[in-house]
Amino acid sequence: MAITPLMPVYPRCGFRPVRGEGCYLISEDGTRALDFASGIAVNALGHGHPHLVKAIADQAATLMHVSNLYGSPQGEKFAQRLVDNTFADTVFFTNSGAEAVECAIKAARRYHYVNGNPQRHTLITFNNAFHGRTLGTISATNQEKMRDGFEPLLPGFAYAPFNDLEAAKALVNENTAGFLVEPVQGEGGIKPATQEFLQGLRALCDEHGLLLVLDEVQAGYGRTGKFFAHEHYGITPDIMAVAKGIGGGFPLGACLATEKAAAGMVIGTHGSTYGGNPLAMAAGQAVLDVLLEPGFLDTVTAKGERLRGALEQMIPNHDSVFESVRGLGLMVGLRLKFETRDFVAHCRDNHGLLTVAAGDNVVRILPPLVMGEEHIAECVEKLSAAAASYQVPST
Hints:
Distance between the termini: 36 Å
Largest sheet: 7 strands, mixed
Shape: globular
Helix content: 25-40%
Low-confidence stretches: none
């Protein structure tokens, strides 16, 4: 059998969307589905949001791309808004989350290098983490499914159990550069860090002169009801990788850093052909316009509470299928009593509900941040119907 024109690295399903409307995707055969996957937490404003569409169209008609050899009025304005609304002093724009994490890894290593400690090159990361698909970012996870067949991997990482502060502390030595951690593990199963864990990592960094590097590619940008998830924990990072929701569907990521942490990132140390081009900056500005509207993030928190409450009410009606709910804001994990992929496919193919499978038998529910009460009701109704019609696997 000949290889397909699209390299066959995805287990693509039969749903083939060609159009989006708000919280819905419509396939080429006209099938309509409630999109509570949001492109895996990307479509923060849903599909076809008028403000985002207009910003992209206007910018595309004006100037799409120029080299980073020139000044960037668009990039400067967007970076300033991020600096004004976060811990960061400086921003590097990328095209993806993996690139944002790569930049964060490089910045952490360069920090120690320019401060006379080149031996401090190892980042401590955590079991079941997901940081991207590049060689650097798969090296930062100990998941065999990400690494198999791609050795030799990048050295300079050590791995500890997530939410185990003592195990992380035990790995700190003279080669440690810092910690790389997701405040809420996404692909790993919507597992929020504990207060003790994340605050403890910050304290260890302060004590030993290390850097706290956060991967908020999935948890950031309003997804948890705060602009960034670390705000729930009362701590700030030194470096942070951001993507997914930042462009509302346009390919965009960013690495944010304090002035101190970015000390090594000088001319010639990093670059990107497309990163921060005018079209991406217009998309990013439009998303930020909506997210920073007074009260918007409060509505995300309220919707998250209502969605979670409705799911918790539903669970006893289908206790052979569902076990528990967890997460923050509209980053919700519904834990099943068995592996999730078949159930996710059943919801999609038979009940018109799009969700995302994750580790630890969790279904990720990641609706657009702009969804309404009626969409919560529809989601729970579809999940309930899917559970009632699903053939639970025998143990």
